[in-house]
Amino acid sequence: MAGLLLQVGRCGGTFSLSSLAFSSSAHVKGSSPGVRVSVSEQKDVEKQRSGSRCHVVQVSASLQSMMSDMSRKAPKGLFPPEPEAYKGPKLKVAIIGAGLAGMSTAVELLEQGHEVDIYELRKFIGGKAGSFKDKNGNHIEMGLHVFFGCYNNLFRLLAKVGADNNLLLKDHTHTFINKGGDVGELDFRFLVGAPLHGMKAFIATNQLEPFDKVANAVALATSPVVRALVDPEGAMRDILDLDKVSFSVWFISHGGTRVSIKRMWDPIAYALGFIDCDKISARCMLTIFSFFATKTEASVLRMLNGSPDERLNGPIAKYIKENGGRFHLRWGCREVLYDRTSEGKTYVTGLVMTKATEKQIVKADAYVAACDVPGIHRLLPKPWREWEFFDNIYKLLGVPVVTVQLRFNGWVTEMQDLEASRQLQRAVGLDNLLYSADADFSCFADLALTSPEDYFKEGEGSLIQLVSQSLFLFRL
Ligand SMILES: Cc1cc2nc3c(=O)[nH]c(=O)nc-3n(C[C@H](O)[C@H](O)[C@H](O)COP(=O)(O)OP(=O)(O)OC[C@H]3O[C@@H](n4cnc5c(N)ncnc54)[C@H](O)[C@@H]3O)c2cc1C
């Protein structure tokens, strides 16, 4: 591999070093690539493919199909309807952080007629879902991102800003790459939908041995997921009660096996929260299982058709600017200024902002902190810990993660056809998110296949992006 390039950034969590992207390319020149991408059609995906191997043509998946309807039989709090029209006075609002939370807040506030300024510490927007271009024109991502079919809130935002055609639908299967290139599938493709498609996926999976599958079935059959089929709110209450129990403890106590945890659930837990089943709460895993069990499309994955700066954050920022919002990049909030009245009430009076050697006090009618975990720990005035709400924020711990991008001069996930894997005319291999139980990293994808608009390059092969805990970094 040639042209090793190292970028270091922060990516949320309590990371001193949390996003690291290597982009290494062999720069093998070849003839014109065979991949052509059309991303504008308002119909479902039609691909020339065998299984989840993608070749030659990718058609866009708009958000008009294969998306769960979370307005029905789903916990209401997680999927709120559009807010009602605001009738009060226009407010000047200062938002700290231009991640998805800050920007989606800005979109809603602007729609309600308020004046919005967003202050972002970094020189690019998007936060953990951000990306930027290096001096060679490579897009460097903060992390590998997939979008489940139940992400209705985000889909609503994308539709609003005109970016709903920027997602590509992937085959409805979850793929595990095991040692030696053995491929395991949790394949949800079936004639009928939820919950039968999920049952079929677990019965048919080749990722687990028969004994572990039976034990898995027992655990899931005795979980609140079953209640979710008829009473989603009640199931959600049961699931919330499991917040203090790790998924491993819950799963084993319901008959599940350690082998299932290692072969299937740990990679999924890592992909969800960068921690294993001994650390992730049963609440987190069972919430997503209950969506998967009740909504056919909830487990379908989409990925951006290119880089987040072009396809996700760019359109959101454009919408914000067109509606009068303002971005202030590289302006970090250093201190929250506040007053206490004689009645003991506390009011924020301003924000101390700095950009290099410049400093200003920002005053607004309302302030929103949409920071990552370490960011908010640094920002909250210590005396506010007297309130449980703010003190609880200090109980949140971030997880350091590393994102690595590697460019190859061949197709890494094409494991059957050696010749095809060595040519550079067309993209071949597995077009999906890939989990791994046997590697130092939990999940990865070939972006040149999954997100070809900005990542497929003439004469070059796979662009593998993988995500791991920072421990991996020290073994490189
Ligand atoms: C590697 C990785 C992969 C992921 N994959 C997925 C996935 O596949 N699917 C999924 O749904 N989610 C995924 N996530 C999670 C998802 O990216 C985050 O939940 C989401 O992006 C968080 O958005 P946010 O706006 O809350 O926070 P952030 O994105 O962290 O944004 C916070 C922003 O605030 C800024 N900031 C902090 N302090 C200050 C300050 N004092 N002054 C000014 N600005 C400040 C930061 O610079 C940052 O830009 C992934 C996360 C990572 C790290």
Mean pLDDT comes to 86
**Structural class by secondary-structure content:** alpha+beta
What's the architecture of the largest domain in CATH terms?
3-Layer(bba) Sandwich
Shape: globular
Uncertain spans: 1-60
Number of structurally distinct domains: 3
- Span of the ends, CA to CA: 15 Å
* Percent range for β-strand residues: 15-25%
Strand arrangement within the widest β-sheet reads: 14-13-22-23-24-21
DSSP summary, beta strand count: 24
Share in helix: 25-40%
CATH topology of the largest domain: FAD/NAD(P)-binding domain
What does the radius of gyration come to? Answer: 23 Å
InterPro entries: Amino_oxidase, FAD/NAD-bd_sf, Zeta_caro_desat, Zeta_carotene_desat/Oxidored
GO cellular component, one term: chloroplast
Function: Catalyzes the conversion of zeta-carotene to lycopene via the intermediary of neurosporene.
Main location: plastid
Explain what this protein looks like in three dimensions.
With 476 residues, the chain is an alpha+beta fold. It has 15 helices and 24 strands. The chain has helices at 100-111, 152-160, 196-204, 210-221, 224-228, 232-240, 247-253, 258-273, 282-294, 308-322, 373-379, 388-393, 418-422, 447-450, 452-455, and strands spanning 2-9, 19-25, 36-38, 49-50, 53-54, 57-59, 92-96, 115-120, 131-133, 139-141, 147-148, 167-169, 173-177, 183-187, 301-304, 326-329, 332-340, 346-355, 358-362, 366-369, 401-407, 434-435, 443-446, 463-469. A 6-stranded mixed beta sheet has the order 14-13-22-23-24-21. Helix 6 (232-240) packs antiparallel against helix 9 (282-294) and helix 7 (247-253) packs across helix 9 (282-294). It starts with a strand and ends in a 7-residue tail after the last strand. The relative contact order is 0.19. The structure holds flavin-adenine dinucleotide (FAD). Flavin-adenine dinucleotide is lined by residues 11-12, 96-102, 119-122, 127-129, 143-146, 332-333, 370-372, 375, 379, 401, 403, 467.
